[in-house]
Amino acid sequence: MLRHVSGERQAQGGVLVVGGGFAGAYVARQLGDRRATIVSKDNFMLYTPLLPEAASGTLEPRHTVVPLRVMCPHAELILGAVTTLDLEAQRAVVETDEGPQTVSWSDLVLALGAVPRTLPIPGLSEHALSFKTLPDAINLRNHVLHQLEAADAALDEEERTRRLSFVFVGAGYAGVEALAELSDLAEDALRYYPRLRSAPRRWVLVDAAPRILPEIPPPLGDYAAGELRRRGMEIHVDTTLESVTADEAVLGDGTRIPTNMVVWTAGVAPNPLLREWPLPLDEKGRVEVDELLRVRGHEHVWALGDCARVPNARSRGVDPPTCQHALRQARRLARNLVGPPQPYGYLMLGQVATLGRHKGIAEVLGLRLRGFLGWWVTRSYHLYQLPTAQRKLRVVVDWTVSLFFRRDIVELGQLGHPEKLG
């Protein structure tokens, strides 16, 4: 019989950080020896900009994450999830493997992040793949390699064509970078599939917006679209996904695409757990905070990152859900927790994106770069922002090795699903 024990503990330094993602981990890291307690379901922080390279095999997946105990050596980590939040009593109930625990706090930081935003599209939840977490990235890689194996074994031309057709819905950073990286993986792998080298491959990008990468200046977005088309990819803008089945995707313009792989990257939504707590939320479900990053109506409750609607004093707008903004919010919030609170404000230095092997786009301080230089600047920026020297070195080694050796094409879909004894 399992014994569930309910205990009570005080958050280190009086600060309880709910969420160990980009925003929450950086708050705890910035607090340093002033200490905090992090509640997270994982013991690592995922550096999401490197997720496409983990999916394509350019990076070892473990190197895109940083252990929270290494990144935040002065913080206490509780593996679990907050199930109850009492803002008046300043207590939270955390469900752990050892049973529920009550944690009291002086200041609460909400950094629960976001989840994939889905729409009521027939067949979407049953047949589409997500691209938000490290398991998602590994699953996508395995799925692409499995499609190549299935296409190689197919005796029917129609079946082979369907297996070699890949649809990505959502033309923001995640969709474009994942499409570019995974197409590189497939093209590299085809050298080992002589029967497929002349077979037609179809890579399709779909978005309801009038152009891809709407977050960046139009000239760079146009360059990205041109680069993808040059590599034979189809781009359908001003178009939606109407339905998905196990072997077909139907677009809003009537296009029917025989495929066994649809990847959904069309935006994110705030963590739905926020709706279960007495918090002020906007129409999108984001926590309402003031210019100090304090939750409206609650003096000792703060929120940041993808789960919050953060007003920016310098841009005079609301921050988008990007790692660049979450990092700056975390720095400001950490300072507000230990000193006189000051308004948050940040102007973007630029925006970057990779387009596969040795191709990228970047806008830095008004300077627009593309091609190899854009790719190099993008990688350099991500390396600079990646926490801990150990992780930086591991990533550099991976990148260096990839310059001299071909990609590994091992499919490891069985990982995490070992056979039972006996």
Topology:
Layout: E1 7-10, E2 15-18, H1 22-31, E3 37-40, E4 44-46, H2 51-56, E5 65-67, H3 68-71, E6 76-79, E7 81-86, E8 91-96, E9 99-104, E10 107-110, E11 114-116, H4 124-127, E12 128-130, H5 134-153, H6 157-163, E13 165-169, H7 173-189, E14 202-206, H8 218-230, E15 234-236, E16 241-245, E17 248-251, E18 256-258, E19 262-264, E20 268-270, E21 287-288, E22 301-303, E23 308-309, E24 311-312, E25 317-318, H9 323-338, E26 350-354, E27 360-364, E28 367-370, H10 371-385, H11 389-404
Parallel strand pairs: 1-9, 2-3, 2-10, 3-6, 10-22, 12-19, 13-14, 13-19, 14-15, 21-23
Antiparallel strand pairs: 4-5, 7-8, 8-9, 11-20, 16-17, 17-18, 24-25, 26-27, 27-28
Helix pairs in contact: 1-9, 5-6, 5-7
Q: Name the CATH superfamily assignment of the largest domain.
A: FAD/NAD(P)-binding domain
CATH architectural label of the largest domain: 3-Layer(bba) Sandwich
Q: In terms of per-residue confidence, which ranges show pLDDT below 50 for 5 or more consecutive residues?
A: 1-5
**Overall CATH class of the largest domain:** Alpha Beta
Number of domains: 3
Q: What is the mean pLDDT?
A: 92
Helix content: 25-40%
- Total number of β-strand segments? 28
Shape: globular
CATH topology group of the largest domain:
FAD/NAD(P)-binding domain
- Main sheet properties: 5 strands, parallel
Strand content: 25-35%
- Per DSSP, the total helix count is 11
Strand order, largest beta sheet:
6-3-2-10-22
